[in-house]
Here is the input.
Amino acid sequence: MKVVVLTGAGISAESGIRTFRDANGLWEGHAVDQVATRAGFGRNPGLVNRFYNQRRRQLREVEPNAAHFALAQLEQRLGDDLLLVTQNVDDLHERAGSKRLVHMHGELLKKRCIWCEEVTLCNPEADLGPGDVCEKCGREMGMRPDVVWFGEIPYELDRIQAALETADLFAAVGTSGLVEPASRFASKARVFGARTVEINLSESARAAEFDEHLYGPASETVPEWVRRLVGDGGELKVETAYRFAMS
Ligand code: OAD
Ligand code: ZN
Here is the structure.
């Protein structure tokens, strides 16, 4: 039984990390094009680095919640048959124990050089700033957070596509379904025969593309879903996927 789980900001909300979209469409008071585009970085690198520095510092104050832990347990059971794809740039999945994990929108704890594209780990104690020098090419003024901004191509799309094509089950957890290409994963997986499950506080923009819906806080719904999947006897009880039901 092959499973792909896509997570979004909603899974980290109960750990204390705010989701992206508030009622005004602002991210913590900033317009998206100020802090999440290459042009915004070009115009004001200081502001952009401060924005992500704050988010990086916040990671030291938060912990994974029961939803992150439940997905790590699911991986222990499924091994290579699970791929966890997260849009989140926090490190809560890995701190809960997940290993087969794709950070399709990058990671706050990594930095990238705009000149030579080298990606390196951030010093979690130190902020990124214009004075930082690239460890590989030695140039200044080019270290940016290794997060994928609007207009940039997310990481590992080929690996994700391959997993979607062979998945029996696809679940989207805590994501609004408003940002491409992740918003198209459910319908893609479905076309290739997967059963699709939406796990969210309430209906997302893409709710109609899911066969099953579980609404409530992720710290409750995700462990419940994993328990149901894994079953008491430890055997997987994923409802038979379309692929098999139709054959
Ligand atoms: P959003 O902020 O757009 O959506 C958060 C989703 O989480 C909403 O659908 C909420 O209903 C749901 N939610 C909130 N609290 C929850 C809880 N306790 N339990 C379950 N669900 C909850 O975040 P994303 O969909 O992750 O990209 O946003 C996608 C991308 O938009 C982000 O990765 C980011 C942004 O542009 C980049 O930075 C490239
Ligand atoms: Zn460089």
In short: The CA atoms of residues 191 and 222 lie 24 Å apart. The pocket of zinc ion (ligand 2) is lined by residues 113, 115-116, 118, 134, 136-137, 139 (CB under 6 Å). The beta strands are 3-7, 82-86, 101-103, 106-113, 119-121, 143-147, 169-173, 195-200, 212-215. The longest strand covers residues 106-113.
